[in-house]
Amino acid sequence: MKILTVGGAMVDAIAIVDSDQIERITMRNADTSYLLMEEGRKTEALDISTHCGGGAVNAAVAMARLGHDVSALVKLGQDSRADQILTGLESEGVSTRWAMRVAGQKTGASLIIASHERNAGIFAFRGANTTIRADDLKPEAFGVDLCYVTSLSNESADCFPEIVARAKAKGALVAVNPGIRQLSARQGPFRECLDRIDLLAVNRVEADALVAGLAGKFGEGGAKIEHDPDRPLPDLLTRGFEGGGFHMTARAYFNALADCGPRWVLVTDGRDGAFLATEGRLHHCPPAPAEVVGTAGAGDAYCATLASGLAAGLEPAEAMVRATLNAAAVVGHVDTQTGLMDAAALDAARAAARIAVESWAI
């Protein structure tokens, strides 16, 4: 299968810090915690390393390892970070023919602090990632089976409707994994593209950002999911979705998005697994057991594996289990790519896995 990924390319510098060396504060009444560093003090790290990353790069590597013919449309500067990214992609068999290098720009970079529960804090410099323009989108790049669009910011986000239009014009299946910045600052143009998106993949925070717009069109509240009272629903399905002062039940939320166009709607919820709505059913796959070393890249691994699986014709439950296993392999490493499995390894993991996917009518 031919695949194009579009979006971010970064070089990640990852610092692993022992929990005794950095303080953490968790808010009592919110799902939020903070890592605290003392000003003027040098903090000892267990290790500091650099790796290739970024949404489009991580997704490209994930799908290339699964045996697909993948190319990446990314924008880089003229610097050593760009050299590292291009070398890394080529070593994974990802085509760089659509990668652009721009004089006077710096390649994106991030600093990842991994400590305590390894739910990393990340400083991001987006650099050339924000400068994709319409004339960078060569029509021939979109002659693929699957176009996978990751988070876009600033000028690049302005191109999102054109990216989707060019992919659909070539008959590609379009999978989109937007970021919170895009959904917050450019939600109007994003929503206008929903009828041309096949798979929408967001995490819980990003899902909440869509509530106000959906509630304005479809109304608040909504019917709840009918279920066996002896089998409690996962927390997200009980809580529903909230944003901008509006609330929608999970059933109403997923149905509203389906009415907007996407065939598949995915919401990931960390330790509570992932939820995939399609054809009047909502599927839930719990996470696979894993020793967490770092969480960066887990979402990219999940969404890329799911998108390529669905595009290849897998049933939703099977695609979800495979995505869960690949994401679990990623969190066993500090960086975003070391744990990504090839097709044979994923097949073996799937054969050994005992993961039950539940589903409900919506």
Automatic annotation (TrEMBL):
<dbReference type="GO" id="GO:0005829">
    <property type="term" value="C:cytosol"/>
</dbReference>
<feature type="domain" description="Carbohydrate kinase PfkB">
    <location>
        <begin position="250"/>
        <end position="339"/>
    </location>
</feature>
<feature type="domain" description="Carbohydrate kinase PfkB">
    <location>
        <begin position="35"/>
        <end position="211"/>
    </location>
</feature>
<dbReference type="InterPro" id="IPR029056">
    <property type="entry name" value="Ribokinase-like"/>
</dbReference>
<dbReference type="GO" id="GO:0016301">
    <property type="term" value="F:kinase activity"/>
</dbReference>
<keyword id="KW-0418">Kinase</keyword>
<protein>
    <submittedName>
        <fullName>Carbohydrate kinase family protein</fullName>
    </submittedName>
</protein>
<dbReference type="Pfam" id="PF00294">
    <property type="entry name" value="PfkB"/>
</dbReference>
<keyword id="KW-0808">Transferase</keyword>
<dbReference type="InterPro" id="IPR011611">
    <property type="entry name" value="PfkB_dom"/>
</dbReference>
